[in-house]
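lol ok so funny story. i was supposed to be doing the assay writeup but got distracted and ended up predicting the structure for this chain instead. priorities right. anyway since i did it might as well share w the group, maybe its usefull for someone
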Amino acid sequence: MSEAIKNRYEFVYLFDVEDGNPNGDPDAGNMPRLDPETNHGLVTDVCLKRKVRNYVAISKRDESPFKIYVKEKAVLNNVHKSAYDALKIEVNKEQEKARWWMCQNFYDVRAFGAVMTTDVNCGQVSGPVQLCFGKSIEPITPLEVSITRMAVTTEKESASQEGGNRTMGRKHIVPYGLYRTEGFISAHFAEKTGFSEDDLSLLWQALTNMFDHDHSAARGKMSARKLVVFKHDTLLGNAPAHKLFDLVKVARATDSKIPARAYSDYVVSVPKKTDMPQGVQVTDML
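and the output, tada:
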């Protein structure tokens, strides 16, 4: 594996949704998540990490050292046991070796960390890459759209629909929303997991391209719009993260009294290199 990264990073990521549900809330009938006090839309960090994992699995064919640990129907005890089998050591002995083997072989363990303290114990990993919740720039208005199903499941249903009745359903959408999330990458934790420059490059690729491989009828049209990366000259960093985030500004380019319906309704301001604090570089990657 390549050497772990030696610089701290932060990033600002903008993405939007058109006529879709970016992240349904199972506690609210799968309506788009929102802040009840402000009606700003929310997308969880877990949702975004899932899309990164899916992109890595597709692009790297889920092969070592880019295997994915958290995936559908994975039996985690069996995954942990594969570490002990590969190292030819007794289960739950020399857990530090098993933990490092998991870091070496699973991209999402190296990047996001993992709690692997199940019956087959591979320890716990604090990941260098962490994301905040995505939040819409302006309040959203979720819509519930009625839909019908022409086909039926049983002959009994078919007989009952001879008069023209159809099975009714509901679809939840956001007409348009531009979301912003912020992220952190710790060189200190990267050293402990082996998160490398190659891994970092793959993360940027995933954030840039992951929505193009995640289309569905429920999610509508989702697109990555802006990725602004701050790179510090040192491992510990050269400026507070919140001050760097404040340098990226999003404002309305059109009349704010009219609901936004496109990315062109906004203007995004990215700081110039000359405006940056000493020891921090800025790159507009999208």
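The CA atoms of residues 274 and 281 lie 9 Å apart. Residues 45-59 form the longest helix (15 residues).
back to the writeup now i swear
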